[in-house]
Amino acid sequence: CDECKKCYHFTCLDPPVKKSPKRRGYSWHCADCDPS
Questions:
Q1: Which is one GO molecular function term here (predicted)?
Q2: Which of 7, 11, 30, 32 could form a disulfide with 1 if both were Cys (CB 3.0 to 4.6 A apart)?
Q3: What is the pLDDT of residues 3-27, one digit of tens each?
């Protein structure tokens, strides 16, 4: 998570993620930090 800096395994996410979503200008937030 780019907000709280917790680490997650991609395959443990719901839905699972196959590769890193990191790209320039992109940030990922876990369910606890996601405002939506």
A1: zinc ion binding
A2: 30
A3: 898 888 888 888 887 877 667 877 8
